[in-house]
Amino acid sequence: MKRRIKRRKNKQRKILIIGSLSILLFLCVGYAAFSTNLSLTAKGNIKELRGAEYLRKICNQTSGDGLYKDVYEEDRCVYKGLNPNNYINFNNELWRIISVEKDNNLKIIKEESFGPMSYDGSSTDNRYNENNTYCTLSSGGSNYSCNVWGGVSGNFVNKDFSGTVNEDADLNIFLNNTYYNSLTEEAKNEIQIHDFQMDGKAENGTVQNYITNTNKYFWYGNIGLIDIADWFKASNNPNCTLSNSDWCPMSNYNREDYECSYDNYLYKNNQFWTINPNNNSVRYLLVVGSYGCIGNASSTVSYDVYVRPVVFLKENIKLQGKGTLEDPYKIKKV
């Protein structure tokens, strides 16, 4: 009888041990599954996408700030509005995404300008007329300069002006040497060498004149300047129409007169260079003025005109973040 009771107790003990081990195993497996799911969920909340691929998915804005289809150039997307979520961290600095290009490179511009600096001719005097017949001496006869960003093959034709341009502008040389060499190695590796349009644009023209792409002259390199067309395309103000001029007057500036500078994230309270020559001159370029109007500046001016570099990012970069000022897009190493 005692043996039978002892056997029963041993059997109950085994059942209890096996049951306890089963419960423990179940809890361990459940915890592991929960931890794995938590980890995957956390990772899933971090965007890690090919830049152009992700942005093209949200290129569907029809009102308000955001990413719109470019109605003037097929397969291109442009950011519009006062403060769209197009902030991006590049070279440990804050930049803005201007567009997703046809080739899926991202065009970006430095948020804060530096300078002021001359465009050409005030320091190195490198474009002597013997090699650059388009370029001329200043009115004071002291400096050779002209309004062409980079050297071209053959003659550069700007409305009624024509001649050879074999060397790059001083600002071009500075940005693609001194400034480029100051970038981090990661930033240099993220830049896509690209073509920059540098056609002349009409003085006192309409928005239609400014956004018409003649695609006649290109410069191919690392760092350039904004095209005046990008300025107008960035405005989301319904009063900024194709018939607007927004040309700066000789005096009596009034910020309210320049409709295309409103609802435009590119507007700054200082004037900065564009890459576009005034097609009524060999020396003057279009600038975005501090009042939001489009003005003229001689290429040799070394005061009051600032520099906002523009680069293209490689198609294969991946983005993390939301594109907001608080959480700008970050570039994963390529």
Explained architecture:
This protein has helices at residues 2-44, 51-57, 170-182, 185-190, 207-211, 228-233; strands spanning 49-50, 66-69, 77-80, 87-90, 93-100, 106-110, 136-137, 144-145, 155-158, 161-164, 194-197, 218-221, 272-277, 284-288, 294-298, 310-313, 318-320, 329-332. By secondary structure, it is of the alpha+beta class. It folds into 3 domains: 1-45; 49-106 and 316-332, no CATH class; 110-312, no CATH class. Strands 1, 2, 3, 4, 5, 6, 16, 17 and 18 form a 9-stranded mixed sheet that branches. It has a 3-stranded antiparallel sheet with strand order 13-14-15, with no helix packed on it. The longest helix is centred in the N-terminal third of the chain and has 43 residues, at 2-44. It is globular. It starts with a helix and ends with a strand. Mean pLDDT is 86; it is low at 1-6 and 23-46.
Short key terms for the protein model shown above:
about 325 residues; nine-stranded mixed β-sheet; 6 helices; about 20% strand; disordered N terminus
Contiguous helical run count = 6
Measured by DSSP, the beta-strand proportion falls in: 15-25%
User: Mind describing the biggest β-sheet?
Assistant: 9 strands, mixed
Report the mean per-residue pLDDT as an integer. Answer: 86
Task: Give Rg in angstroms.
Answer: 29 Å
Query: Which descriptor suits the 3D outline?
Result: globular
Q: Which stretches are poorly predicted, pLDDT < 50 over at least 5 residues?
A: 1-6, 23-46
Number of domains: 3
How would you classify the helix and strand content by structural class? alpha+beta
- Indicate the multimeric state: single chain
